[in-house]
Design goal:
The chain is an alpha/beta fold. The protein has a single domain, classed as 3-Layer(aba) Sandwich (Rossmann fold). The protein contains nine helices and seven strands; from the N terminus they run E-H-E-H-E-E-H-E-H-E-H-H-H-H-E-H. The strands form two sheets. It has a five-stranded parallel sheet with strand order 2-5-1-6-7, sandwiched between helices. It is globular. The relative contact order is 0.21.
């Protein structure tokens, strides 16, 4: 487990998990949101995000968190482990609400510079519709991966048990 991609709905805890695994296994962590969003919530071109990921996946070890379906195959073909946080929608909606309160007026550590935490209707709906809109495509992609270990967690308790197991 040296090349890990972490995916899941917004609010599922991808970035926190990436940071924790990175500390435990001493592996560099790349939060895609921090690269995609430039100051003022301005996105970079998808081709630039793809180029960055091509650079990351050539390294000996890495953890990359984020969905970004347009560039997911880059990570999917290079990883040895996929961690999919497939939590309940209400749990993820709680996660984005908690995060908004926790980082009110501030930029999270895993986000691009000068992108203060926000919670708008578009993002709430994206999270609310994740299982309906995004899950079928994710399942299709994951079903075609045979070279990597797939770890799917449906609750924070399962994720915490996994963290405990790799800490030993």
């Amino acid at each position: 487990m040296r090349k890990i991609m972490i995916i899941g709905s917004g609010g599922s805890g991808k970035s926190t998990l990436a940071k924790n695994i990175g500390q435990i296994l001493d592996i560099p962590v790349y939060h895609l949101d921090a690269y995609f969003w430039k100051p003022g919530w301005n996105p970079i071109e998808k081709s630039a995000l793809a180029s960055l990921q091509e650079t990351f996946v050539k390294k000996d070890s890495w953890i990359i968190d984020g969905n970004y379906s347009a560039t997911m195959d880059i990570r999917l073909h290079a990883c040895d482990t996929v961690i999919f946080l497939n939590y309940a929608t209400l749990r993820c909606l709680y996660g984005i609400t908690k995060r908004r309160i926790q980082y009110q007026g501030k930029t999270r550590p895993d986000m691009g510079k000068d992108c203060p935490e926000k919670l708008d209707l578009e993002f709430i709906l994206w999270v609310a519709r994740f299982k309906k809109d995004k899950l079928p495509s994710i399942r299709e992609r994951l079903n075609s991966v045979h070279h990597a270990q797939l770890l799917e967690f449906t609750s924070p308790k399962q994720t915490n048990n996994f963290l405990s197991s790799i800490s030993k």
